[in-house]
Design a protein that fits this description.
The complex is a heterodimer of chains A (332) and B (371). With 332 residues, chain A is α/β, with parallel strands linked by helices. Chain A has 12 helices and 10 strands. A 4-stranded parallel beta sheet of chain A has the order 2-1-3-5, with helices on one face. A 4-stranded parallel beta sheet of chain A has the order 8-7-9-10, with helices on both faces. Chain A has a two-stranded parallel ribbon with strand order 4-6. Chain A is globular, with a radius of gyration of 20 Å. Chain B has 371 residues and is an alpha/beta fold. Chain B folds into 3 domains: 3-125, Rossmann fold; 127-203; 206-371, 3-Layer(aba) Sandwich (Rossmann fold). Chain B has 15 helices and 7 strands. In chain B, β2 (69-73), α4 (84-95) and β3 (100-104) form a beta-alpha-beta unit. Classes of the chains: A alpha/beta (332), B alpha/beta (371). Chains A and B meet through α4 and α11 of A and α4 and α14 of B.
């Protein structure tokens, strides 16, 4: 019988799932992904995790609880860095330890360190370490890893074309772009961590709401890496967070374009990286343009009505601007 | 050019010694106060960590006194501190505060850029003189921390309550009047002598508490409501492993000279947190284990709200609490922290420790969790 590997549907799930899925399945393991985020999962996470942690980390704990009794392994790699000379949030590095010391009776945790800070070759090292639990053949692991990488690149390409992870990860929905009578489509950039942006429960279906209101969404994933890097090279100090670089680079790129009607920054309360990047982004947008900018903060207490009101007000303001020739304040 | 720098506990003494020795013009910002924090909170992003806010307050207060250049240290992640300099720059720019920021760190562009920054700061300086300044300044840092450790020892044991605080307070006044590392060292020596002459109750076996957590909030006594004096005056001896001199010696000098660092804490942290994840999380975990092994009565963790590495540490600490049977209290500080509530928690924790010692027979089965 094949071994069951549990993957919590949280955090980097939204960034790497095709890679993980192909890799484990090629090695003959069975993948069990936790259920879609629900009130129950969120509540479980909030209850078991320390109060001070940010929403995505709490949610991750909820997903672990959802999985832990039905799998042989929990896949919680220790992410230190996913790109050369860059870090990610320190909480990712401590995540396996946080989980291990929070819950009792967990299955074995696959907590291989993934650290590409020095060299991207370390990814293969990590893959070999993870794969050794399922097969003795290094060749088989390498083959699985290469195949997984191919699927991952295809996934990135689809994201770039504007598809959402949910569109091809088993929850296909008809997502027509709704054009509102008499209004032109708005182009709105939505900046935020993948795990806030693509988890439609936690962001209260922000993306669907925007689409249904006649909005074309532009995410970080749709912007070319080279453009981002070129923009970031003009920063006085190199940005050492992977997400930070992509977010700031995207915002700087957006300022160059003249087809963007607004910027929405989706952050979770207590996120250390967002607290800086969001502030830097906002200062840049306000200083160098008159593009409307709004920050939507989510946490476990967020109410959907408040969220709706803010989104609607933001979109109305942009539309009135077009109608009334820019006489409305940009600071929504 | 009038230099200033952010406050962090006693670091201003070390910084003052360095700037005096280099013969530079500088302003020491008024010591941290409610006003500093309020200024910072007003202009810094809401969810930024507390030290950033206090730093901004420091700069604005120093700016009023004519400072135009800021020196701070930096880093390259993953802790937010590494990007402080850029945040400071942006915030001050939007405020119309015309101040230059010089970051003392190893830049991406390597040695030439580093030398350019040093030159900007100190002009052309004889490398031999620079080495001498570094040596003297490091000595000052070490001695200041030594002095502080002495107060940790005398406070719970002094026969006449308040004598340590009186001497230590006077020290902070005197040190501002001294100039250069030589005079400062003289003041430190005199103070150490005064402290050693306090009448102590040598029989007393005070409770021992270790302080761990994020470096700024543990070191800066205004920010942590003078936790060390507070506990000391309750008759508790405190110990804190993370110090300014430790940071200078371990992280700057030993790294630069390629000398192996003291990694005992990393070894101790291994079963709980296997890797360095930035900030002081590994120190927090490791030192807590070391304190537990050394028979300390309790540990207090302090960190500013939203501090990423310490949140990881906080969620692991209960495991150490369980394994070693040592009570741990976590105190989280931000601009909304009220002193009364904070004191109540510390007092309750101190009471718990006292009771545990008084009842050794049932000690282990007693309520443990202080958080």
């Amino acid at each position: 019988m094949s071994k069951k590997v549990g993957i919590p549907r949280a955090l980097f799930y939204y960034q790497y799932i095709p890679l993980w899925r192909t890799f484990f399945e090629e090695l003959g393991a069975e993948i069990v992904v936790s259920d879609y985020t629900s009130k129950r999962i969120l509540d479980d996470g909030v209850k078991s995790c320390v109060d001070e942690a940010c929403l995505p980390i709490k949610l991750f704990h909820g997903h672990v609880l959802n999985l832990k009794d039905r799998v042989d392994y929990l896949f919680i790699p220790r992410f230190t860095s996913v790109s050369k000379n860059e870090y990610i949030c320190p909480k990712f590095g401590g995540l396996p330890d946080m989980v291990r010391h929070t819950f009792k009776g967990l299955p074995e945790i696959i907590d291989t360190e993934i650290n590409l800070r020095k060299s991207a070759k370390n990814a293969l090292e990590a893959a070999l370490d993870i794969g050794s639990r399922f097969t003795g053949s290094r060749m088989a692991i390498k083959r699985a890893f290469h195949k997984a990488q191919k699927d991952y690149l295809r996934f990135r390409q689809m994201l770039k074309e504007g598809k959402l992870p949910e569109d091809f990860c088993g929850r296909e929905k008809q997502r027509p772009l709704v054009r509102q009578a008499g209004n032109r489509m708005l182009n709105i950039a939505v900046i935020g961590h993948v795990y806030n942006l693509y988890d439609s429960y936690i962001n209260m279906e922000l993306l669907d709401k925007l689409r249904n209101n006649g909005v074309n969404i532009i995410t970080i994933d749709m912007i070319d890496e080279e453009i981002i890097n070129e923009k970031c090279s003009t920063l006085p100090k190199r940005m050492f967070w992977n997400f930070g670089r992509k977010a700031i680079g995207s915002v700087m790129h957006i300022l160059d374009r003249d087809d963007i009607d607004g910027v929405i920054y989706l952050m979770s309360f207590g996120c250390g990286i967002d607290s800086f990047i969001c502030d830097l982004a906002e200062r840049k947008v306000r200083r160098e343009s008159n593009i409307p900018f709004i920050v939507l903060t989510i946490d476990e207490h967020s109410g959907e009505a408040g969220m709706n009101t803010r989104i609607e007000a933001f979109l109305d303001m942009i539309r009135w601007r077009h109608k009334d020739e820019n006489n409305i304040s940009a600071y929504g | 050019m009038k230099i200033t720098f952010p406050h962090m506990g006693n670091t201003y003494i070390t910084a003052k010694a360095m700037l005096d020795d280099l013969g530079l013009d500088y302003v020491i910002p008024p010591s941290n106060s409610r006003m500093t924090l309020e200024l910072g909170t007003k202009y810094a992003p809401e969810l930024a960590c507390l030290p950033l806010k206090i730093n901004i307050g420091n700069y604005l207060q120093a700016y009023e006194q004519g400072a135009d250049t800021i020196i701070i240290t930096g880093g390259c992640g993953p802790c937010r501190f590494g990007y402080y300099c850029e945040m400071h720059r942006e915030i001050l720019k939007d405020l119309g505060c015309d101040m230059e920021i010089i970051t003392l760190e190893w830049p991406d562009k390597g040695l030439p850029e580093f030398l350019r920054r040093i030159k900007k700061l100190a002009g052309s300086i004889n490398p031999l003189k620079l080495a001498k300044v570094i040596k003297n300044v490091t000595q000052v840092a070490l001695q200041v921390d030594e002095l502080e450790r002495l107060t940790f020892r005398t406070r719970p044991r002094e026969m006449e309550k308040g004598s340590t605080d009186k001497i230590y307070k006077a020290f902070h006044k005197k040190v501002l009047e001294a100039s250069g590392s030589r005079e400062i060292k003289q003041v430190i020596r005199e103070t150490a002598k005064q402290l050693s002459s306090i009448a102590l109750d040598e029989e007393k076996k005070p409770l021992k508490v270790g302080i761990v957590g994020e470096i700024y909030t543990t070191i800066d006594s205004h920010t942590n409501f003078e936790i060390e004096a507070l506990l000391g005056n309750m008759g508790i001896e405190v110990h804190r492993a993370v110090t300014v001199s430790g940071w200078i010696v371990e992280h700057m000098l030993k790294k630069a000279l390629n000398i192996p660092r003291d990694m005992r804490y990393a070894e101790a942290a291994k079963p709980y947190l296997g890797k360095m994840i930035g900030g002081h999380a590994q120190e927090t975990i490791g030192n807590t284990v070391l304190y537990a092994r050394q028979g300390f009565d309790g540990v207090i963790q302090i960190y500013p709200l939203t501090c990423m590495p310490e949140i990881v540490a906080e969620s692991i600490l209960p495991a150490i609490e369980r394994d070693y049977g040592i009570p741990i209290l976590t105190l989280i500080i931000d601009e909304m922290t009220g002193e009364a509530g904070y004191l109540t928690r510390v007092e309750a924790f101190a009471d718990l420790l006292k009771r545990r010692r008084e009842r050794p027979s049932i000690g282990k089965d007693w309520a443990l969790s202080g958080s």
